[in-house]
Write a structure and sequence with these properties.
The chain has one domain. 44% of the residues lie in helices and 19% in strands. The chain has a 3-stranded antiparallel β-sheet with strand order 2-1-3, with helices on one face. Helix 1 packs across helix 3. The protein is globular, with a radius of gyration of 12 Å.
Length: 77
């Protein structure tokens, strides 16, 4: 799982907001997409994050997302 979450973190990602006002944004990495979400959280009321991993599309698990967020938080401190 750590190798998979590292691969996901470096994969391109799209932040899709369910608001018609906020456009979708695609980033070179999931880390950059998460940073964008952190900086713009007040405008992102309902979002989906799509990771372009090259696999058959499937949602990442909550444990994978938690691992990615935990690693991101550790890198910020």
């Amino acid at each position: 799982m750590p190798n998979e979450s590292r691969a996901l973190a470096s994969a391109a990602a799209t932040v899709h907001c369910w608001s018609e006002i906020v456009p979708n944004r695609t980033f070179a990495s999931l880390d950059k997409a998460i940073a964008y979400c952190e900086e713009n959280i007040s405008e992102l009321h309902a979002i989906e994050v799509f990771v372009h991993s090259g696999r058959i599309p499937e949602p990442i698990s909550d444990s994978e997302l938690k691992a990615l967020l935990s690693r991101k938080m550790r890198s910020l401190s």
